[in-house]
Write a structure and sequence with these properties.
alpha/beta, Rossmann fold, 6-stranded parallel sheet, 5-stranded mixed sheet, 15 strands, about 10% strand, globular, GH
Length: about 575
């Protein structure tokens, strides 16, 4: 798809922004009347927003906001606690250290926040380094939490615009809400299935469930091309081919946003082009500009053309664009490349500001630098008070131009009003059979033969399922799925099917395995001696159901390897 859709969006949004900036005083010298001096004080009633175009509604609301409200709208921290107003003593202590208040609701009120991210842990999670706490447990709890957060935000002067509640629901190894929801296979599995329609249907199902729980912003899909042997990106990527990844990204965006949840393309301009982990260090991208333009940027362009409402900037040193400057703080990258070259006019969100590369500056200075570079939303500042105070001081001394802040807030509010009129699905959708089928169809289409014939994947007689250390839950899931598919599973003596997964090495393989199956990235299979090698590209329960169907002979392993594996030449099994 060409750049015409992006151009049309650029013209429309730019016109509104120009009008807003003119009203705000484009020279930056005109001071907007300040909001009440006490950060926690809200106006008696939020200004009514006119019906109609989201950008026009945003412009009207921005014109009513004081300095404190403008600053708060560009902050999206995390908080401690599984409830908005009732938290444990430990969570209260964590919130006081983070923001000087005890509860998430108090944090929203004090800092006039534009949004909040829900955080949590998951198995094999490469992002665990910046997950300081968890506030997701089950759908009912999440729904109660989001209801409380929206109630607190509704009392703010900007409360007529929906509060942004986001999370990292990528599916696969980075999945914040794992229980009681439809689990999709990983992005790499979707890349192996190589059918954007299946991807769109699965992500629409997932988006519907997120919306039912009160989440309206997903930090997904990952648009990174897996150009290196990365352990931080790995199966979070749709694959190594920019063209195939682009098609998958477009499908995921259409699915999520069709369900009323904003999609976020990440990690711009492409974390898959480095094997380093930006949670702990500043990865360096040494590729030429031509390589980046042809190998890293196409999925982001495809996501933008599919209508993505947000892009996440990455903590990457892109030497071909702005050497030595983390991308989060690079105006050349975010304003010149993302806005100018790719034509993106939605919301640019930083990656977590509690990650090592962003913490090279104090929280207030980091927030100002990020906003001046072209970000519109500051995600997970390590200290909310310092970030808020730093932005407010910079606004008033001119180091953060008022026009830049007004532009950012207008974009954030435009996104909110785009989400405003979407109907909220019932919680009963979380048990919808249609959602389950969409996930199963995608997972089944991903199963790939990497060694052996296309028919050798079918097992005969009883099966013994084994797995590398720490994968008992996945082994049990495959055992259950095989039994349901009519295959007899025995503790020993059967055809050995051995599972390996994220981070495993040669020592985790089994020399006597008849079939070795790689979940997530399959690098370890290069050293496997089994006559039959399969890949599911994902360890999700639904992927074990798809694998069981192939082993039982009820489905064909029609997946196409989304990435090369050294020493293995996969056959092409007919679909």
């Amino acid at each position: 798809m060409g750049r015409v859709p992006s151009l049309l969006r650029r013209v429309g949004v730019t016109s509104v922004l120009l009008a807003v900036l003119t009203a705000a005083g484009c020279t930056g010298t005109a001071e907007r009347p300040a909001a009440p001096a006490t950060p926690g004080a809200a106006s008696p009633s939020a200004a009514p927003a006119p019906a109609g175009d989201p950008a026009a509604r945003a412009a009207a609301l921005v014109a009513t906001l004081g300095d404190e409200d403008l600053v708060g709208q560009v902050l999206m921290p995390y908080a401690y606690g599984s409830s908005a107003t009732d938290v444990s003593a430990g969570s209260a202590q964590g919130n006081k250290a983070l923001a000087g208040v005890a509860t998430p609701a108090e944090m929203i009120a004090k800092y006039r926040l534009g949004g909040l991210i829900l955080v949590g842990f998951s198995a094999d999670d490469p992002t665990s380094g910046n997950q300081e706490t968890t506030n997701v447990d089950n759908p009912k709890q999440v729904h109660g939490l989001t209801t409380g957060l929206r109630a607190a935000a509704g009392k703010l002067p900007a409360g007529t615009a929906p509060f942004l509640i986001g999370t990292d629901q990528e599916y696969g190894v980075v999945t914040r809400i794992t229980d009681g929801v439809t689990q999709l296979p990983s992005a790499l599995a979707a890349g192996a299935a190589d059918d954007p329609a299946l991807t769109e249907a699965a992500w629409r199902a997932a988006g519907t469930e997120l919306a039912a729980m009160g989440i309206n912003l997903d930090f997904a899909p990952v648009a990174d091309v897996l150009a290196t042997r990365s352990t931080v990106i790995g199966s979070r990527s749709f694959g190594a081919d920019p063209k195939r990844v682009s098609a998958q990204v477009g499908g995921a965006v259409r699915g999520l946003q069709g369900a009323g949840v904003a999609a976020t393309l990440k990690h711009f301009p492409g974390h898959g082009h480095s094997s380093a982990d930006s949670h702990a260090e500043l990865p360096v991208l040494t590729q030429s500009r031509k390589v980046l333009d042809t190998g890293a940027l196409p999925p982001f362009a495809a996501g933008i053309d599919a209508g993505a409402w947000a892009v996440m900037s990455a903590h990457l040193d892109v030497r071909a664009v702005d050497p030595g400057t983390p991308g989060t703080f690079s105006r050349k990258l975010l304003t010149d490349v993302l806005r100018g070259q790719l034509g993106f006019q939605g919301v640019v969100i930083t990656d977590g500001m509690n990650m090592a590369p962003a913490k090279r500056y104090p929280p207030g200075e980091a927030a100002v630098r990020a906003l001046n570079a072209g970000n519109d939303l500051i995600l997970m500042p390590p200290n909310v008070t310092q970030a808020y105070d730093g932005l407010l001081a910079a606004l008033r001394d001119g180091s953060l131009p008022r026009t830049r802040l007004v532009e950012a807030v207008t974009r954030v509010l435009t996104l909110k009003f785009r989400l405003a009129d979407r109907p909220t699905p019932e919680m009963s959708t979380l048990t919808d059979d249609v959602h389950d089928k969409a996930a199963r169809d995608l997972a089944a289409a991903a199963v790939t033969v990497l060694r052996g014939s296309c028919t050798a994947a079918r097992v005969t007689g009883p099966v013994t399922v084994t797995a590398s250390g720490g994968r008992e839950r996945t082994r049990a899931a495959l055992t259950e799925a095989l039994t349901a598919a009519g295959v007899r599973v025995v503790p020993s003596g059967g055809t050995v099917v051995h599972l390996v997964g994220y981070g495993d090495g040669a020592g985790d393989l089994r020399a006597d395995a008849d079939v070795t199956v790689a979940m997530d990235t399959p690098y370890v299979l290069a050293k496997a001696t089994s006559p039959t090698l399969l890949a599911t590209w994902s360890s999700s329960r639904v992927s074990m159901v798809g694998l069981a169907a192939v082993l039982a002979g009820k489905a064909r392993p029609t997946g196409r390897a989304p990435m090369p594996v050294t020493g293995l030449r996969a056959p092409t099994c007919p679909r």
